[in-house]
Amino acid sequence: MIYDDIFFMKKALIEANNAFHKNEVPIGAIITHNNIIIAKSHNLIETFNNVTAHAEIEVIKIASNKLGLKYLKGCTLYVTLEPCIMCAGALYWSQISKIVFGAFDYKRGFSKMKIKLHPQTIHKSGIMSKESIILLQQFFKKKRI
Predict the structure, then answer these.
(1) Catalytic (active site) residue 56
(2) Is the pTM here over 0.70, yes or no?
(3) Which regions of the chain are under pLDDT 70?
(4) How far apart are CA 106 and CA 30, in angstroms?
(5) How far apart are CA 27 and CA 90, in angstroms?
(6) Chain Cα centroid distance, residue 77
(7) What is the pLDDT of residue 1?
(8) Residue 31 in contact with residue 59, Cβ under 8 Å?
(9) Beta strand 36-42 with 28-33: parallel, antiparallel or unpaired?
(10) Cα gap 127→117, rounded to integer Å
């Protein structure tokens, strides 16, 4: 089996689908370390009635607890939508090594807001963006009906 960005983004999309079925905005995230998934979650804002319960924040907490570390050096985040400025700030402080996201968030994404990530964090965009966008569009179309 090939463990590449597409493989792990598919796992993040499964989490996004879980959010969709819970009536949460369908954003999913996973964190890997040495090509092993150590954390997975999705948006839980409605579930927890907490605006900070974004998928990225949830997986940072899970990964940090699992590793017993506050810094996530050597880890990669896969998330279906570009992190917002709140999540980018948390990712900055986590010192995560790599961020891979699907679709750009042209309204609230960290790149639109010109937020810088940690200097040692690399990022890659557009992985399975079409699938991420379709899921988001289906969710908001359902909301408007």
Answers:
(1) yes
(2) yes
(3) none
(4) 22
(5) 17
(6) 6
(7) 72
(8) yes
(9) antiparallel
(10) 19
